[in-house]
Amino acid sequence: MNHSEHTSATWSELQHFVDSSTVRHDLHTTNFAHPNILDTIPTEPSRTPYSMDSKRRKTGDQDISALRLASRQKYLAEREAQQLALLRRQVAEEAEEEERLGDKLSARERQEFRNNRKTLELAEARNAIDDSGEGYILPDADYSNKHEALTKRHKDKVYEKSEVQLWEEEQMKKIKSQPKLKASDRVQEEDYEYVFDTSNEVQFQVDASTRVDVDKQMLQRQLDEAEKRASSIEDVRRSLPVYKFRDELLAAVDQHQVIVVVGETGSGKSTQIPQYVHSALDSSGMIAVTQPRRVAAMSVAKRVAEEFGCKLGNEVGYSIRFEDKTGPKTKIKFATDGVLLQEAKSDPLLSNYSCIMIDEAHERSLQSDLLLVLCREVCHARPDFKLLILSATINAAHFSQYFHNCPIFSIPGRTFPVEVLYSKAPEANYLAASITTVMQIHISAEPKGDILVFLTGEEEIQAAMESIEETKKKLGSRIRELVVCPIYSALPQDLQQKAFEPAPPNGRKVILATNIAETSVTFEGVRHVVDTGYSKENTWDSVRGLSSLVITPISRANADQRKGRAGRTSSGWCYRLYTRAAYYNELQPENIPEIQRTNLDEVVLSLKQLGITNLLEFEFLDSPSSTSMIKSLENLYALGALDSTGALTRLGRRMAELPLDIKLSKAIIESEKYGCREEILSIVSMTGESATLFLRPKDKKVAADAARKRFTSLEGGDFITYLNIWNEFVESGYDPGWARENYLQGRVLTRVRDVRDQLERLADRVEVPESSCGTDHIAIRKCLTAAFFTNAARLQRDGQTYRVLANSGLTVHIHPSSPLNESRPKWCIFASLQATSKEWMMTCAPIEPDWLVEVAPHMHTESSISKLGDNKKMPKVLQERSKTSAGHNTTIKSGMPTGQK
Description:
Layout: H1 3-20, H2 30-33, H3 37-40, H4 54-101, H5 107-132, H6 143-151, H7 163-177, H8 214-239, H9 246-255, E1 258-263, H10 269-280, E2 286-291, H11 294-308, E3 316-320, E4 323-325, E5 332-336, H12 337-346, E6 353-358, H13 366-381, E7 386-391, H14 396-402, E8 408-411, E9 418-422, H15 430-444, E10 450-454, H16 458-475, E11 482-487, H17 493-497, E12 508-513, E13 526-531, E14 534-541, E15 546-553, H18 556-564, E16 572-576, H19 580-585, H20 601-609, H21 626-639, H22 650-656, H23 662-674, H24 677-688, H25 701-711, H26 717-731, H27 736-741, H28 746-765, H29 777-788, E17 792-795, E18 802-804, E19 811-814, H30 820-823, E20 827-835, E21 839-846, H31 849-855, H32 862-867, H33 876-887
Parallel strand pairs: 1-7, 1-8, 2-5, 2-6, 3-5, 6-7, 9-16, 10-12, 10-13, 11-12, 13-16, 19-21
Antiparallel strand pairs: 3-4, 14-15, 17-18, 17-20, 18-19, 20-21
Helix pairs in contact: 4-5, 10-11, 12-13, 15-16, 20-21, 20-22, 22-23, 23-24, 23-29, 24-26, 24-28
GO biological process, one term: mRNA processing
EC number: 3.6.4.13
Coiled coil: 77-104, 209-236
């Protein structure tokens, strides 16, 4: 093809392109999209087109560059003016805030204000230089000429090419003329693994003069991170709703002795108010903040210490059972209600504290209600004492009325809208429905947002975990990552912290929790709440003397609290596994206070120790039934803790020092008489934790039952069985591996060890001398009989059931988990009665009937016992089994290891 043919073809292609082109908006092709473009293009190639004219194209590009530069300079000038105006406004606002707050500002805030003022001064001084015209002003240069001069390159003269150069060009043309390889024929980079030959590494030597100090580098990095974290924490604190009401709140605290602070979820009342009050009150006394649960006390204390800028345990600390993380410098102390009540027993006026804050008071736990009763008396005795009752919206007026119509200070919450979804029909199995709902949300809902599921207890949480994990394995990689995090009071702290960690990238976290997650703790990132509508409550029947741990429907107040957990950080959803009609017609408005549904033996003993004598006429926040109160007074009198006038005896004062059930406290005191303190301390510690001690996996039930049977004592019952387990655990060196091998919960045994250490210190405090009876189990059983003689039972004629000597002859059964369920001795004692499908005796021990006369002659006489004498009509099979049981000899591993630390 000659040159003219080539030019004609090119021109034809150009015209075809113009005819077929659509309107385009690119800067360099606007003319080609114009409808009149054909008028400007010649029909013959007599003129050089614009696209082929290199000189014209270069000039156009230079014009565009100049326009871009001018536009950029204009934008920077406007941006500078805007930023300067914002800085002036910020400095003015900071000056007003500094004048208003004065000494309340922190050193960091003052430094930040000074830096901003200095920056403004420098910026205005710079502008003043530009405005005055002083200094050098560079004239505009000819950018085209300047660019041409800078980019000009030397061009060699054109010489004739050598033979070598001609040969190289020939070879290159041949290569280019070869057909291209298909994509499938090309060698891909990932087809071969790159292997690095370490022998070819370049060796370097560090210049000593430039060596980086690793320690200094790490320290600087830590300082930078701390500064960044402090800045972030301060921003969060200022964003909380309570921050806007700081001055008004402190003014109210200054004017009133008692204040009820009502704060919705997310208002910041639990973390911020203690710090505000600390900054305003006299620092002579501590501020105590009570929490109903151990988990809440630890987590809130950790957060406040971080905001306070101190190490946990210094200015901010916490105190829970078995763990006291406070010191001489502590000014803000978070504690459980029970810990503060124990302190009040030795210091009824709480003289170490200038202010008490009772958080989550709306839960109406037994301990918090007792604290309110105590603090009311302290307010009367100490005019300088301050009391703040922190509550949700419910019960605020009731609290105010109890404290002589004290003011109510309301703080709005920072909640986002939550969409509520009710189940169309009642769910027959709420546990299975909750697991299904979790998977529905995870598979179909948007990826963002964790899931919080409310269940009733540890057993349900463990079952839900197993089911979700099994479903995850079946679905495999078809679903995103789902991390299951349990949380309940008995869970170890390190496992509890996993629930507070962020979810993995592109994954989701599901938190399985009891009602502990309603108000006490906060999980960031939760947007989905699954509400089963149930919780587990302990109720007490004072007439029959038995407790019932019952799964009951929650109240509407609880349901609203659960819903609010989905709207902490953004909008969310609440999936209620019950109908809308059930919410309005079946759920109670509020919870029944625990003081009206629990055993009052310990309550009465504590109030007696605090000097409150006339309990039947005492003004409680919500008074318990007179029947329950009288029954507890009778029990304490029978045990010798009260005299005939209702006053505390020496035995009663010693029992009150022990934070236990009154019968277990009596057993420790009585161990002095029978010389078995070491064994009784071990038994009492194990009894309190026995509910969660044994493991029985579904696939290893036979092995677990065999391991448990190895510790069983038919002669000593459950109490001696617990002692055998403890002694072997001590001999193993407190080895968790030994616990796993024997299907026992290692963390429960660790907690037993903590309980026993504490009880040993308290036994020394109440002057119970050290003693050990070795393998003399009769001394141990007599000591237990001296404490549990009111819980004695006699086998009935049917050989299956027992009749309780007290409580109007209630018919009961030995629990199937007890070793005595096989031997069924004629006489036995039990630690408690539990009502489920039947009335069960829990934690039993066989006794001799004449022991009852020996340890409690005021309650059991020889004549009353002889009337119940040997039952001649007892079945022969049972008589033979009883004889076999009496002759059975069980070795008890004992001795001084029970007291070993």
